[in-house]
Amino acid sequence: MHLRKVLVLAALLCMAGLLAAGNLWFAARRSTIPLQLDDLVIGRETKHEKHPGSDDVYLLDLERRGTLQVDKHIYDAVHHGDKLNKAAWERQLIVGERAVALTYSEDFVGLTRVMPASLLVLIATACCVGISKHPASKLVQA
Amino acid sequence: MRQFIIAIVPAVIVGGLYELFLGHRHDYAGHYLAGYGATLAAASLWFRILPPQRYAKSSLNSILPGCVICILLGVLTEATIFRIAKFDEIDFCNQSLGAVFASVAASTLSGCGKPSEAEIDIGLIIGIAFVGVGGCFAFA
Question: Distance, in angstroms, between B20 CA and closest chain A CA?
Answer without folding.
Answer: 9
